[in-house]
Write a structure and sequence with these properties.
Blueprint: E1 7-12, H1 16-28, E2 32-38, H2 42-49, E3 56-58, H3 61-67, E4 70-73, H4 80-89, E5 94-96, H5 104-117, E6 122-124, H6 132-143, E7 149-157, H7 166-172, H8 175-185, E8 189-195, E9 211-217, E10 222-228, E11 236-243, E12 246-250, H9 276-296, H10 308-327, E13 331-332
Helix pairs in contact: 1-9, 4-5, 5-10, 6-8, 7-10, 8-10
Bound molecules: nicotinamide-adenine-dinucleotide.
Length: about 350
């Protein structure tokens, strides 16, 4: 068999996430070229395409999908369903940023549309699955040398709250943790309770921040998530897995050279970056490489990447958290496994 050609990729949405993926795909990924930089804001598309050799800047979504071998969807959340359906109609593999879509109905429609095609075209950008630290935690659970996992503690802190509503905040931020918990535990989250209490002084007045979430998985693992979007001091993601006779954790620090100090005492300083792109650049790279390899060599499968079903299941947990926050009660979660 001759050498397979590089995968020509159209990136739909050239904002913060899209520009990051375009740069990684162009300079750090084997066998991939960015063929189209697509944005409804043409000046944005031109700016981002400028340093990328051979990339066309365009606002013509349909033409870009038709001409490329694969697409990355990095447009705003509410555009995902439409763009996914366009790529499905063109039989084009895609990596769609989280969340899969903004409603459970949309997620189910997407899962069903892909299933009807009878082949895997959709992967979701849950990049914690590629972060070396998260992979080590998962390996620890899978090895079982410290006994079964009992608890998983998570924190997700952002510098500044940028959300319009509490519901959006829950759908778009801890959705990463919902997927990570399902993936680490190897089972579904079946019940959630979300509470809020004393509020950050700097949050937008119309929404809750911080929010504390407690999840229970099918076998009874308790996983908590502190979601704090107005943390000011830095961007910090933590995860600790407590097994029966051992524990392991990610410390959440990044390698940023200009990090502020978390603690005032210089002896106790822990440097934390301010940008999510620094913390997860390695995970984005490993995720994109795995996806490009799977597109180029379909026989290798897409099994490392989150699927449309994972996108649906994680949004279902988010929706249950929104309900729990409103009702003040625990909410059961019943994901429907995809029909065979
Ligand atoms: N995985 C992660 O860690 C991570 C981090 C940040 C954002 N995201 C996700 O990435 C996606 C984009 O977020 P962002 O922060 O880059 O947003 P952004 O607002 O910075 O950029 C979105 C871009 O998409 C363009 N756009 C809007 N509609 C479009 C369409 N129909 N077709 C093509 N382009 C369109 C906009 O003009 C804008 O330039 C969201 O789904 C978000 O949740 C993921």
């Amino acid at each position: 068999m001759g050498k397979r050609p590089d995968v020509r990729i159209a990136v739909l949405g050239a904002g913060r996430m899209g520009a990051e993926h375009i740069s990684t795909l162009s300079f750090n990924i084997k066998n991939a070229v960015v063929s189209h930089v697509v944005d409804l804001d043409m000046s944005r598309a031109i700016d981002v395409a400028d340093p990328i050799e051979g990339a066309v800047a365009t606002s013509d979504i349909d033409a870009a999908i038709a001409e490329a071998d694969a697409v990355v969807i990095a447009a705003p959340e509410e555009r995902h369903r439409l763009l996914i359906e366009k790529a499905l109609a063109a039989d084009t593999p895609m990596l769609c940023e989280k969340p899969l879509a903004t409603t459970i109905e949309d997620c189910l429609a997407i899962v069903e549309a892909e299933r009807a095609l009878g082949k895997r075209l959709i992967s979701i950008g849950f990049m914690r699955r590629f972060d070396p630290g998260y992979r080590a935690l998962r390996q620890m659970i899978a090895d079982g040398t410290d006994g079964p996992a009992l608890m998983i503690h998570n924190s997700h802190r952002n510098v500044q709250n940028q959300w319009d509503t509490t519901a959006d905040q829950i759908r778009y931020l801890p959705v990463h943790e919902f997927d990570a918990i399902r993936w680490l535990a190897g089972e579904e989250i079946v019940r959630v309770t979300a509470v809020t209490g004393k509020q950050s002084q700097d949050k937008p007045p119309e929404l809750d921040d911080p929010i504390f979430i407690v999840c229970r998985t099918a076998s009874g693992i308790i996983a908590d998530i502190e979601m704090y979007s107005s943390a000011k001091y830095g961007y910090e993601v933590r995860c600790e897995v407590v097994c029966d006779s051992g524990t392991a954790s990610l410390d959440g620090s990044s390698r940023s050279a200009h990090a502020p100090a978390v603690l005032a005492d210089p002896q106790l300083r822990l440097d934390v970056g301010r940008d999510w792109r620094d913390r997860f650049s390695n995970a984005y790279r490993l995720e994109l490489q795995a996806w490009v390899t799977s597109v180029r060599e379909p026989e290798s499968g897409f099994s490392q990447l989150a699927s449309a079903y994972d996108g649906y299941a994680s949004l279902l947990v988010a929706q249950a958290c929104i309900e729990s926050l409103e009702s003040g009660k625990p909410v059961e979660v019943h994901p429907q496994p995809p029909a065979l």
